[in-house]
Design a protein that fits this description.
The structure is a single chain. The chain is mainly beta and 119 residues long. The protein has a single domain, classed as Jelly Rolls (Sandwich). It is 6% helix and 50% strand. Strands 1, 2, 3, 4, 5, 6, 7 and 8 form an 8-stranded mixed beta sheet that branches. The protein is globular and about 40 Å long.
Length: 119
C-alpha cells in the first residue's frame, strides 16, 4: 500500500488547527499530516483505511488517539482495538502496526525525531 505522509508543519503557533476540515477533505486511504510542533514533539493527523507495515521506533514512544472509526494496533502476540475517544501509548522498541478496516481518523503525538515508517 502507498502511504501519503506529510512531515511539514501545517500550522504555526496560535493558528487554529482545522482537524475536522482536514479529515473531511482527505480522500486518500492512508494519509498522515503533521499539524504542529509542541516543544520537542509533533501532533499528527492520520486518516486510515487499510494496514501499515510492521515497524518499530528504537528511541521514540508514540501515542494514538482515535477521533472516529476503529484503529487496530497489532503488537507481537496481541491486537488492541481503539474506538472513538480512546488512546494508547506504544513504547519505543515495540514492534507494531496500525490498521483500519473502515475509514478511521486519529491523532498521533510523538517526538519530532520519529521516522513515521519506523527505524
Amino acid at each position: 500500500m502507498e502511504y501519503s505522509i506529510h512531515s511539514n508543519i501545517k500550522y504555526e503557533p496560535l493558528e487554529v488547527v482545522e482537524v475536522g476540515q482536514l479529515a473531511d477533505e482527505c480522500t486518500e486511504p492512508w494519509w498522515n499530516q503533521t499539524l504542529s510542533r509542541v516543544n520537542d514533539s509533533v501532533v499528527r493527523l492520520g486518516v486510515f483505511k487499510g494496514e501499515f507495515h510492521w515497524h518499530k521506533h528504537d528511541r521514540e514512544d508514540e501515542f494514538f488517539y482515535v477521533i472516529e472509526g476503529c484503529l487496530f494496533l497489532d503488537l507481537e502476540g496481541q491486537t488492541i482495538a481503539l474506538g472513538p475517544r480512546q488512546g494508547l501509548m506504544v513504547p519505543h522498541g515495540v514492534l507494531h502496526r496500525t490498521r483500519a478496516e473502515t475509514r478511521t481518523v486519529a491523532l498521533m503525538i510523538e517526538p519530532a525525531t520519529v521516522v513515521p515508517t519506523g527505524d
